[in-house]
């Protein structure tokens, strides 16, 4: 499962890069010295950004959402830090896209084409 998860993450990053480049945006990975990590950051040319966690299944959605929210808060503590325009978890094995009560979106990979 770990290998499949890594392959799925690479697939999602490839798709995000293609979609980002169409909109004159860049794809990055975030990791700081405290090992806080965001799987994918899409930064638009105006500096706005979105944070994406990538999970093959839906079992880790809650933990991934908490991680995105926590790191976003840490980034905003920096005087130059700005909040992400969107936070989302891309999943491989879910059927519907929805917005959680905490504001984090959960998206099946098939929703990216929309």
What class would the helix/strand composition place it in? alpha/beta
Q: Which CATH-level-2 architecture?
A: 3-Layer(aba) Sandwich
Percent range for β-strand residues: 25-35%
**Helix and strand run:** HEEEHEEE
Helix content, binned percent: 25-40%
Number of alpha- plus pi-helical segments? 2
Gross morphology is globular
> Into how many domains do the coordinates divide?
1
Uncertain parts: none
Descriptive terms for the model:
114 residues; alpha/beta; Trna Endonuclease, Chain: A, domain 1; 33% helix
Compact description:
The chain has 114 residues and is an alpha/beta fold. The chain has helices at 2-22, 61-77; strands spanning 26-31, 37-43, 49-55, 86-91, 98-99, 105-108. A six-stranded mixed beta sheet has the order 1-2-3-4-6-5, with helices on both faces.
Describe this structure in words.
By secondary structure, the protein is an alpha/beta fold. It has a single domain (2-113), classed as Trna Endonuclease, Chain: A, domain 1. 33% of the residues lie in helices and 28% in strands. The protein has two helices and six strands. It has helices spanning 2-22, 61-77; strands at 26-31, 37-43, 49-55, 86-91, 98-99, 105-108. A hairpin with a 5-residue loop joins strand 1 (26-31) and strand 2 (37-43). The longest helix is centred in the N-terminal third of the chain and has 21 residues, at 2-22.
